[in-house]
Amino acid sequence: MKLNVSISPHVRSRQSTTTIMLDVIIALLPSVVVGVWVFGPRAFAITMLSVASCVASEYLYEKILHKPITVTDLSAVVTGLILAVNLYSTAPWWLPILGGAFAIIVVKMLYGGIGQNFMNPALAARCFLLLSFSRIMTDYPKIDGVSSATPLTLIKQDPTATVPLSDLLLGTHSGTIGETSAIAIIIGAVYLCARGIIKPREPLSVIISTGVFVTFFSLIQGKPVTLDFLMVHMLGGGMLLGAVFMASDYATTPVTPWGQVIFGCCVGFITALIRCVGGGVEGMSYAIIISNLLTPFIEKLTLPRPFGVKKERKEREAK
Amino acid sequence: MLSKTFRGGVHPKDKKELSAGAETVRLEAKGELVFPMIQHIGAPAKPIVNPGDRVLLGQKIAEAGGFVSAAVYSSVSGTVKAVAPHLNQSGDEAPAITIENDCEYEAVPGFGEPRDYDKMSREEIIKAVADAGIVGMGGAGFPTAVKLTVKDGIKIDHVICNAAECEPYITCDYRLMLERADDAVLGMKILLKVFPDAVGVFGIEDNKPLGIESVAKACEGSDRMSVLPLKKKYPQGGERMLIYAVTKRKVNSKMLPADAGCVVVNFSTLIAIAEAVAKNMPLVRRVVTVTGEAVKNPSNFDVPLGISSQELVDAAGGFTHDPEKIIFGGPMMGSAVYTLDLPVTKTSSCILCLSNDETKNSEPTECIRCGKCLYACPEHLTPIELKNASDRLDYKRFEELGGLECIGCGCCTFTCPAKRRLSQSITMTKRYVLAEKKKGASK
Predict the structure, then answer these.
(1) Considering only CB atoms, which chain B residues are within 8 Å of A195?
(2) Three-class SS string for A148-189?
(3) Does A14 touch chain B (CB under 8 A)?
(4) Do the Cβ atoms of A233 and A210 come closer than 8 Å?
(5) What is the model's pLDDT at position B221?
(6) pLDDT in tens, B201-256
(7) Does the CB of A110 have a partner CB in chain B at under 8 Å?
(8) Is the CB of A114 less than 8 angstroms away from the CB of B251?
(9) A250 in contact with B at a CB cutoff of 8 Å?
(10) What is the rounded CA–CA span in Å between residue B227 and residue B184?
(11) Contact criterion met (CB < 8 Å) for B378 and A1
(12) In Å, how far are A95, A226, A275, B212, B258 from B239, measured between CA atoms?
C-alpha cells in the first residue's frame, strides 16, 4: 500500500482558474449573441478573429520562449472576447488580430502573464487601437441599413436628444458589438454574482458613482439633467459592460473589499469627467485603465484589519 | 432562530453521512498498546514505570512533565514491554511506553467509584481534572486543567462547549451528542461549579439537528445551560470563531480565551471531565471515527487509548480498495500518515482513509488575484500578501500584515482556484518567526 503524505489541508475546492474563466465566457455569451443578432454575421467574425488572435499570441509567445503553455486556462479566450465586444462590427479584419496580439503580448505576457499585468489587456489594446486608428475605430456600424451615431454621441451633440428605452435595453442601437444590450449584460452580471466570480459591489460602485458624477458635472455646467439623459449615460455606452466585465477584472483591480468600492468610484469619477468636462464621448476605457494604475495604492490603503487586532494607530498614541 | 457564525470561512463537503449513522461500538485491544509521552501541547510526560512492571487499568504510567503537561494512564492491565521511542503521527519518533495486554482488565482500586462532585471545592475539581491527564480532545491537546486555572481577577462568564465539529467526515462528537448527552451535561455542571458566574453554552453546527435536539433535552431544567445552533461553516469550531459566534468578543493571538471571559472545552473532553470528577476515571478511552471512501464500514469506535490504528481499520471491515491517503484528524487540519502502525492518542478524533487524494493533481499555478483567500480567511488576513512576503523571506512585512494571527485553518489553500499552497507557506513562515522570537527572548 503506497500512501501519499502532504501538509494539510487535504481537500481542495472544485473551482480552478479554468472554471472561473469558463464562467466569465458564459456570462459574456448573451452580449455576444445580441451583438451578432443586431450587427449581423460580421460581428461574429470579428469576435472569432479576436479570440483566435489572443489564443494564438499566447501560445506562440510561450512556445517561442520555451515557457509552459497556459492557453488551456482560457484566460486568453476571455481577453479575446472582451476586446471583441469593445470593437465595432465595421472593423477591418486585421484590427482584432492586431489588437489581440497587442493585448496578449505587450500588456499581458511581457509583464509576466496571468495575474501580473497592471492594465486590463483588452482595454489597453482597445485604447491603443483607438489612438492609432481613430477614424476606423469610430466608424459606426449600420443598423437596418442606416448609419447612425451611438446614443452617447447623440447626447454629446445635443443633451436634450432622447433614445427609446426599449432600444437601450434590447441593444437595437449603434455601438460596439457587446455594449448595446443592457439586458444581455445584466444577465451576465447576475450569473457572475450568483457563481461568486465577482462581488456585486464592484459593478454597482462604478454604476452608481458614474450616475452621481455625471449628474454633478452636468448641474455645475448648467445642463438640464433629465431621466432620459441619465438613462443614455447609464445604458447607452460602454459603461455597463465596463462595470461588469472590466472594472471587476481580477488582476488589475484591488482584491480588498473597500478597495473595490474606491476603485469603482475612481472609474465613475474619471468617466464622468471625460464625458461631461473633457472632449471624449465614451471615457470608460480610459477611466478603467487609469484607475488600474491606482490599484496598488488603493489596495495598500484598504488592507483589512486582522480579526481581534485593534488599530495600531491607537496603540502608538497610547505609547 | 438564525444560527450564529463569523465572517469568512469555507464550505467543504462535510461527508459526515458516511459514519454519522453508525452507533458507537466498544472495542478492546487485541495486540500491544503504545502510549506516547507527547499527546498534548507542552512538556512531554515522564515515564514512571520500567520494562517488566505489571500495570493495572487506570494506573498512572507517566506523570506530567511540568505545569503545561498531562499525565498518562494505562488503559489495560498487563506488562510493560518497553519504554522506548515509537513513531508518532507527525512522522518522527517520540518516547513511548509499550504495554502487553493480559486481557484481564484488572483495575486500580477506586477506579470508576462514584464521587460527589457537589461536595468538592473548586481546587479539588481542577486537581481531579489535572490528575486524570485530560487534554483538549478535539485535536489541539491543550491540558484542560491549565485552561481551568484562571488568573485571579479574571471573571469567566461563559463556559463554551465546542461541539461544532466543523471538520468534514468526523462524527465522534456527533455520536456522543446522541448517545451520551447526559454525561456531557454533567461535565458542564461540574465546570459551572468551578466558574460560578458563568453560563454554559453548547455550540453545535446546524448540520446536526439531532445532536442539537439531544443536547437541548439533556440541558432541560437548567437555567444556566443552553444550546446555541451555529452555522455550518468551516472553521466554526476554531476557538476564536466560536467565542465570537457565542459572545461577539474578539480574541487575538496575544490573548487567551479567559481574557474574553471564556473557557472553551470540546464535547468529548466534557465527558472525560465528568468521568474523571464524578466517577474517578482517568482518561483511558475515547471515541474515534474511522471513515473515508476507502473504508468498508465507516464506524465510530469507543477504544482504549494506545490501541493500534490498524486494529480500528480492521474492525471497520478493512479497505474496499487501497487508500491513497490516510489522515489522522480531519481533511482540513489533520496530518497525513504513511503507516497504520500508530497508536490512538488522546487527540485522535478520526482515522480518515481517502481513496482519492485531491491534492495529488493540484499543482500550483500563477495567482490570478481573485481575492478569494481574503474573503475566506476567518482571521481577516490577506493570505495573498502573506504568501508573497513568505516567498520573499520578508519576515518584517509578514508580521506587519498580521501573519502571526494565522490559525492555520487552511481555508485559503482550500479555496484558491490557482491551487496555490498559501496556508502551507504561511504556517511555515509563522513557525520560523515564532522560533526566532523565542531565540531572541532567551538570549
Answers:
(1) none
(2) CCCHHHHHHHCCCCCCCHHHHHHCCCCCCCCCCCHHHHHHHH
(3) no
(4) yes
(5) 87
(6) 999 999 999 999 999 999 998 899 999 999 999 999 999 999 999 999 999 999 99
(7) no
(8) no
(9) yes
(10) 12
(11) no
(12) 58, 55, 53, 19, 12
A-to-B residue pairs, Cβ atoms closer than 8 angstroms = 158
- Which residue ranges of chain B lie beneath pLDDT 70? 1, 443
Cβ neighbours of A118 (radius 10 Å) = 14
- Strands B199-205 and B158-163, bridge-based pairing: parallel
Q: What is the pLDDT of residues B268-305, one digit of tens each?
A: 999 999 999 999 999 999 999 999 999 999 999 999 99
Mean pLDDT of A225-251: 91
Task: Answer whether residue A313 shows pLDDT above 60.
Answer: no
C-alpha–C-alpha distance, residues B301 and B177, integer Å: 14
Please say whether the beta carbons of B253 and B29 come within 8 A: no
Among the four given CATH numbers 3.30.2270.10, 3.40.50.11540, 1.20.1260.10, 1.20.120.520, the one describing domain B112-279: 3.40.50.11540
- Phi then psi for residue A209, to 5 deg, are -70, -35
Q: What is the pLDDT of residue A319?
A: 43
Express each pLDDT in A74-106 by its tens digit: 999 999 999 999 999 999 999 999 999 999 999
Edge-first strand listing for the sheet containing B335-337? B24-26, B299-304, B285-291, B350-354, B325-328, B335-337
**Residue numbers in B near A15 (CB within 8 A):** 372, 415, 417
Return the residue matching grid coordinates 442606416.
Answer: A146
In a mutational test of the B interface, the residue from A2, A3, A17, A250 whose CB has the highest number of chain B CBs within 10 Å is A3
Hey, are the CB atoms on B368 and A250 less than 8 Å from each other?
yes
- Whole-prediction pTM value? 0.92
Round to whole Å and give the CA distance between B100 and B107: 15
Tell me the domain boundaries of chain B: 24-111+287-354, 112-279, 372-442
SS3 B235: coil
Question: In chain B, how many H helices and how many E strands?
Answer: 13, 17
Cβ <8 Å between A16 and B323: no
Nearest to A75 by CA among A116, A17, A118, A29: A17
Does domain B24-111+287-354 fall under CATH 3.40.50.10860? My reply is: no
Reference A17, options B380, B423, B362; nearest CA is B362
Interface ipTM? 0.90
What does the pLDDT look like over A189-215, one tens digit per residue? Answer: 999 999 999 999 999 999 999 999 999
Q: Which amino acid is at B23?
A: E
Residues near A98 by Cβ (< 8 Å), separated by ≥ 6? A53, A129
Phi, psi of A191 (to 5 degrees): -60, -45
Contact B323 A3 (CB under 8 A): yes
- Strands annotated E in chain A: 142-143, 146-147
Residue the block writes with cell 472632449: A279
Dump the DSSP string for B368-429.
Answer: ----HHHHH-TT---HHHHHHHHHTT-HHHHHHTTGGG-----HHHHH-TT---HHHHHHHH
**CB of A72 less than 8 A from some CB of B:** no
Which residues lie closer than 8 Å to A183 by C-beta, 6 or more apart?
A: A30, A34, A169, A170, A171
B132, B77, B82, B435: which is closest to B278 by C-alpha?
A: B132
**Best residue in B92, B325, B341, B359 for a mutation probing chain A (most A CBs within 10 Å):** B359
Q: Are B381 and B403 in contact (CB under 8 A)?
A: yes
Touching check for A308 and chain B: CB below 8 Å?
yes
Which of A12, A113, A255 is opposite residue B414, by nearest beta carbon? A12
φ/ψ (deg, to 5) at B399: -70, -40
Check A75 against B331: CB less than 8 A apart. no
- Per residue in A229-263, is it b (16+ CB within 10 Å) or e — as a string? bebbbbbbbbbbbbbbbbbbbbbbbbbbeebbbbb
Q: What is the C-alpha to C-alpha distance for residues A127 and B308, in angstroms, rounded to an integer?
A: 68
Domains, chain A: 17-301 (1.10.3430)
